[in-house]
């Protein structure tokens, strides 16, 4: 029976009428204003004080800020303030039309806490902050009062109260507040208060207090944490009429360059001529900055800058303001006029797919670039500035060049490689400069070069080109975007085919195809604008272009007018501004790598003398990862300056034809193979006669041969295997899709899928291990990241050249290896020194206790050996045998018994074969572009078996060191931290710059090659003095005296020699033995300072502090008198004689405080430091 039908419930209809829809609701009137009558026209609006104060509470938690003389964009201020003050309760950041910023906080207390921490700087710019009040006027031209934090030094303690601080602060301005430490009297060096200063009154530097309790007045010194500029004429803050009058050009001169003013000055001597160097990459407030420059390109990659001789009355180069390139689409001709001296007519180049009428570069849509093909020669617009850059290919003739620079590098340039060069020529209109550039290209055998800042007019371009290169050469320029030629690129058309891609006033990009090679090379020549805002377009271009050229070798070279770090400049403005981070951010985002270089580090010189000299590295050569994958040995040369204030740049591209013998290294990915453990087990079943160490090491050698074959069969050329497996799997999927019912196709597809996934995992493991990335533990398919990290690491650690003692540059791999081996043989195995004759008992007066001796001689257990092994990180660099800790841990159930037996054999028989104690020395650069062996830090990579033995000794030795080592040392010791010594040193050096304090002396001592030169005899004699058990001394002696070294040079092992002194950086035992050796200096100082003629540093006398050690660096303290300093020097000399540790005078410094000039000179002569 069917259920009765029910009517569906009708859907509620919208019952609102048209009248309801237009009826005024509360929500529509919540912002309605009061209906007041209109005010009379022409009358002033009168507002009562009560109305102004009625709503002031909601604004009392707001502070107002502005930048004097500068307007920072709102988004930048909002970003910085939100990042720094968000946790302080910042709710909102708004801006007014005239440049004021309003910062609203959730409470007034949080706002005061931010003001208390001031003064603040945003992006290197001072921001004036104060709390809003009803009488505040938003007019920068009428800021007559400002809050400023000051420090009162010498304020009597009775005045450290609210009334006293207010009274003292009123001497400077209107008192506002003090910080918490001043209020609670927890920092007594100075009282910190905030006062409102008046622009009409001068700054108060000090004032006196008349005290009825003292006969003489008390002087209080005032330090301003920030002094805003004030105008003595207008009595307002933010500008100075005097400075404006001195620098402001007259209205008739605005828009004219220096050259025009100089021209007028010749006829009108009353016109001022600017004398300061023009601004380039520094902050606009900087007075000394580099001049604009021009790069040039050759087949050996080089960059050059040429300049016309400066007028005696003018600076070396005028500042030219270049407007940013237009982003509007421009028509692109079908042909690119490429001119040569003999054929000025346009030449049609092959069609370039990038050259579309509306070129769009994918990425940020707001930064879309529209590029046009430049009329290289036919543009009749006048030209104002340019630079030079070049590209060339080395031929056999370059190998016979006569100059040192050419001779050095000619043998390393393949004849079929396109090696560009560049030079900022700083003008190229004079015939002298043209001849110099011509000779430079011939001398370096360049086939492609770029010139920057040439300043050539378009009508004169063909004539200049005729003087630079033969008729078979062609050239390109960016005159389509500028009135003068900024970038000029020349190339030998008989050897290279150069295809234009895009350009702007700041760059010119082209693609080079060599006649003898099908591998294209993209070149981008750079001449960055002088102002940071104009260079933003350049950074955006590089970031977006890097995405399009991932698979194409790409070189970016030229004058960027920017530095990467503060170390890239000497002299001038030392401040670091926020815009200077743009270059490094661009390099990081575009994943470009700086080419290793030789020659000059600072590529630009301002041409001044003495303290006015400024040097910067403004010229750079960068490459993408594909470039270094194609030419692993690519490097560059920055030549000495000639006709320009910039260095010429050469790039050498060469294939790595040298086949080195790659040493064996265990790959972690092998352990995941199914037949790996069976391979290890088969080697371990071999019967070998001999002692346990010999058996163990022999089985490792047998396994090494099997693992090499294993690698050849399964994991060699891992990236190619992955690609092939992927193709095979894709093909199997297509076959399966065509015949889904085939069991053979299904099985084959699953098998190939498993094989592909395993190879992907192997590839990721391979690059992770090679890249040495330790912090990344999780993630899926990080192969690309690991590969990039490996490439960066290889480029950074690659040794391209070394300079010998005679100044000759060595680039041959074998000669560099011989030079490295010879250096370390002289360092680690010098002529044996006579035995130690001195009695050092007084240096180590504390013998160890009997209980400690008993603990050190406890029987060795299997668990102790296993714990020592498993405490070694898996991916630590292996020793010469190639096995890392991961291998031993993975195969512990197979090899553990033999490993324990070998370890026990050492402790029972005091025997350690050299194959176990061999060390692979890795050369880690200490500086950028190292050129000598002293620029490398030798890190010893020891075999795992030896590391395990060393760790067992350390575990027993370090328990007694705390009783032996004095409090002056805190590095490496359990329960101590080196930061304690750092904080104590800062406390002792605090206020040492003041001239009115007590006389003090501090010595910062650097020990030359400390770990590598310490005497074994001194260490062993000291261990005997503290009554260390003889068996422990024997174990330590065997560990340090049987070490053998082999040098790792660019992945290849060279030499094998025994050392006679030194401790290995990388041996677990070395830090503790070195700390023990340094305690000998403490004993010498302790005995010597008992002399009554020695005077302590005034803060050190109570605790008898004479020195603080920071591993191989130390600080010495005493009173500033010749007797005390002489006692310290005699202790250092005696310690050097005993321990073999010598002072590095070049890196050691003398600090004297509160002494006159004569005493300062006398002590400096006595100690011999700077």
TrEMBL record:
Residues 309-333 have a biased composition (Pro residues). CDD domains: RT_nLTR_like. Transmembrane segments: none annotated. Pfam families: DUF4283, Exo_endo_phos, RVT_1. GO terms for molecular function: catalytic activity. PROSITE patterns: RT_POL. Residues 266-290, 303-333 are annotated as: Disordered. Residues 905-1170 form the Reverse transcriptase domain. It comes from the Eukaryota. Gene3D superfamilies: Endonuclease/exonuclease/phosphatase (3.60.10.10). InterPro entries: DNA/RNA_pol_sf (IPR043502), DUF4283 (IPR025558), Endo/exonu/phosph_ase_sf (IPR036691), Endo/exonuclease/phosphatase (IPR005135), Retrotransposon-Effector_Assoc (IPR052343), RT_dom (IPR000477). This is Reverse transcriptase domain-containing protein. It comes from Populus alba x Populus x berolinensis.
